[in-house]
């Protein structure tokens, strides 16, 4: 039986993008088979290229978000550079941009303008706070939006709020942009028309704050910051083990508590003790509950603790570091690692989490060098050698 093709085979995406939100969205499209043309500045390109040199001399953010794309280095402030983008957009299915507020509109590259000129085009505007309202002009870096969206207020310990360790606002916006493109392409398949897609980082992350938000709006009080513990469930925390590890466990109901008391703590009577028998009681006596669990686990290695918890049917996990994630046995067993090419040589990368059994494997293309595909793309839009030479001489392309 022949494998099904990748679902976005034949779709062309043009992206004027930088940092994380738009690049991560378009990388998903590239992985699913789309051709993605990444338009970068001639003077250094996407500024994420310069964030660090951790990936064999390349920036880790850039490597993560930009595999499988063609890099076209253009000066969009020069009319000749902008004309190249317009020619590419005329033949594209999707356009994505996350320039600073107002910049795309000044260039005529905002979604409304492009969709009016190209009715079949799906055009995406990704912004920090949306195209209107009092925050529209504010700078919107990930950490700032995490603060504005309340994520920082519910993350951390009772004493100290902290930001998420990943760019949560950027990722949230990227994934809604990705799903918005897919939805708009489905609609185009039935109506023949594309249309604008708008995503803001604030609105995307506010949606992800659904539980704290609804808890607060309806209960009146925001959930407390509890570190690795859970605000309304106990025991639910990470506990140290004899070998220096930490094991997280979660008791979801009173039946599980009785099993934990008998099979792990070794004190069956705790299962029916009124001070611990219900979740409400355990939360009310959280310190004593945690002390009982901690006392049972601190004499076991992490492996022994996990084995005992698993045997008792208690949800549990090892508190892993990032290096330990890179060697995670489940990812290895499911063969989720691949290599992608880059200007620095082959780099290890994870298969994208969308798996399509019976279809071709995700297309994990190379990470492009700045302007690697400029000449080929200029030729593709009909430019002759002397035109290309003039653009290079004048610094319009790189």
Number of helices in the DSSP assignment: 17
Helical content stands at 25-40%
DSSP strand count: 11
- The low-confidence runs, each spanning 5 or more residues with pLDDT under 50, are none
Helix-strand category: alpha/beta
Rg computed from alpha carbons, rounded to a whole number of angstroms? 26 Å
Q: What spatial form do the alpha-carbon principal axes imply?
A: elongated
> How far do the termini sit from each other?
45 Å
Largest β sheet strand count, sense and barrel closure: 6 strands, parallel
Beta-strand content estimate:
5-15%
Order of helices and strands: EHEHEHEHHEHHEHHEEHHHHEHHEEHH
Strand order of the largest sheet: 3-2-1-4-5-6
The averaged pLDDT comes out at 97
Task: Describe, in plain words, how this protein is organized in 3D.
The protein has 398 residues and is of the alpha/beta class. It is built from 17 helices and eleven strands. The strands form three sheets. The protein has a six-stranded parallel beta sheet with strand order 3-2-1-4-5-6, sandwiched between helices. The protein has a three-stranded antiparallel beta sheet with strand order 7-8-9, with helices on one face. It has a two-stranded antiparallel sheet with strand order 10-11. Helix 1 links the parallel strand 1 and strand 2. Helix 1 crosses helix 7. It starts with 11 loop residues before the first strand and ends in a 5-residue tail after the last helix. The model has no long low-confidence stretch (mean pLDDT 97).
């Amino acid at each position: 039986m022949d494998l099904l093709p990748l679902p976005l085979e034949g779709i062309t995406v043009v992206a004027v993008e930088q940092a994380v939100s738009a690049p991560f969205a378009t990388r998903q499209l590239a992985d699913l088979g789309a051709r993605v043309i990444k338009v970068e500045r001639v003077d250094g390109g996407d500024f994420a290229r310069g964030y660090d040199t951790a990936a064999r001399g390349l920036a880790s953010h850039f490597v993560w978000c930009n595999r499988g794309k063609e890099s076209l280095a253009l000066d969009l402030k020069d009319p000749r550079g902008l004309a190249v983008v317009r020619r590419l957009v005329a033949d594209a299915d999707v356009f994505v941009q996350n320039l600073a507020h107002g910049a795309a509109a000044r260039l005529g590259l905002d979604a409304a303008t492009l969709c009016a000129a190209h009715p079949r085009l799906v055009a995406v505007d990704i912004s920090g706070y949306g195209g209107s309202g009092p925050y529209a002009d504010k700078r919107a870096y990930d950490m700032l939006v995490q603060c504005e969206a309340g994520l920082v207020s519910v993350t951390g310990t009772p004493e100290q709020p902290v930001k998420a360790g990943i760019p949560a606002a950027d990722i949230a916006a990227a994934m809604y942009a990705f799903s918005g493109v897919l939805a708009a392409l489905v609609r185009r398949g039935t109506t023949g028309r594309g249309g604008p897609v708008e995503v803001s980082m604030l609105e995307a992350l506010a949606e992800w704050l659904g539980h704290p938000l609804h808890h607060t709006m309806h209960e009146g009080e925001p959930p407390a910051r509890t570190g690795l513990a859970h605000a309304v469930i106990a025991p639910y925390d990470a506990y140290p083990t004899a070998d220096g590890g930490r094991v997280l466990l979660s008791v979801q109901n009173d039946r599980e508590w009785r099993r934990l008391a008998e099979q792990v703590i070794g004190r069956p009577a705790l299962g029916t003790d009124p001070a611990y028998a219900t979740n409400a009681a355990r939360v009310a006596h959280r310190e004593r509950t945690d002390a009982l669990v901690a006392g049972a686990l601190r004499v076991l290695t992490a492996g022994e603790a996990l084995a005992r918890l698993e045997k008792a049917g208690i949800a549990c996990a090892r508190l892993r570091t990032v290096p330990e994630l890179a060697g995670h046995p489940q990812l290895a067993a499911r063969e989720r690692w691949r290599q992608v090419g880059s200007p620095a040589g082959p780099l290890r990368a994870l298969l994208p989490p969308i798996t399509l059994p019976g279809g071709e494997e995700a297309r994990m293309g190379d990470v492009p060098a700045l302007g690697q595909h400029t000449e080929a793309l200029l030729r593709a839009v009909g430019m002759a050698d002397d035109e290309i030479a003039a653009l290079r001489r004048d610094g319009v392309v790189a």
